[in-house]
């Protein structure tokens, strides 16, 4: 009696199970570990403005040495998040990531009509007033990360634009 068809079927079922578990469980686990590191750096209390990365920098996964990063964590169970930033005089972008690593919002300096960003990140069911005209992005998960990137071409451009970068804020708007 040949057992190889049974072994092939068992390997196929095992591969499907491993694939499904990897796709469903790995991204939130990776984001949880990254968010713990970011919280340890203070990103849960506001915006953390990391220095230009070097060989030891790992707050952001695989950081580029040509970018300066600013990071804030959000927890929408505490209320919507208001992100404010002034665009520096260089390439700049803002991305928002859900807890499962999905990127649900992105904008760069070329896409903004002016030199400032004001963005409200909230859940679909959140009711909030007083923010008429402020763009809204709906987060697919309650927790996540806002990541701002600024191009650093040389030390002088970094020093010139770092003050503008540091004026960014992430503020939780309490539900009342």
Automatic annotation (TrEMBL):
Keyword Membrane annotated: yes
Any Pfam family hit: DUF1254
InterPro entries (UniProt xref): DUF1254, DUF1254_sf, UCP010244_IM
Keywords: Membrane, Transmembrane, Transmembrane helix
Transmembrane stretches, start-end: 6-27
Keyword Ion transport attached: no
Domain of life (superkingdom): Bacteria
Protein name: DUF1254 domain-containing protein
Annotated organism of origin: Pyruvatibacter mobilis
């Amino acid at each position: 009696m040949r057992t190889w068809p049974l072994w092939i079927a068992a390997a196929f079922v095992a591969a499907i199970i491993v694939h499904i578990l990897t796709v469903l469980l790995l991204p939130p686990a990776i984001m949880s570990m990254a968010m713990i590191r970011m919280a340890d750096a203070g990103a849960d209390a506001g915006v953390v403005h990391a220095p230009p990365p070097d060989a030891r920098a790992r707050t952001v996964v695989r950081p580029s040495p040509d970018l300066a990063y600013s990071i804030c964590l959000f927890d929408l169970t505490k209320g919507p998040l208001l992100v404010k930033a002034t665009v520096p005089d260089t390439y700049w972008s803002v991305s928002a990531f859900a807890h499962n690593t999905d990127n649900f919002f992105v904008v760069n300096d070329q896409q903004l009509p002016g030199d400032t960003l004001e963005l409200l990140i909230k859940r679909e069911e959140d009711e909030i007033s007083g923010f008429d005209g402020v763009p809204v992005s709906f987060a697919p998960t309650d927790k996540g990360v806002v990541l701002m990137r600024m191009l650093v071409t040389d030390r002088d451009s970094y020093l010139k634009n770092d003050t503008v970068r540091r004026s960014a804020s992430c503020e939780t708007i309490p539900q009342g």
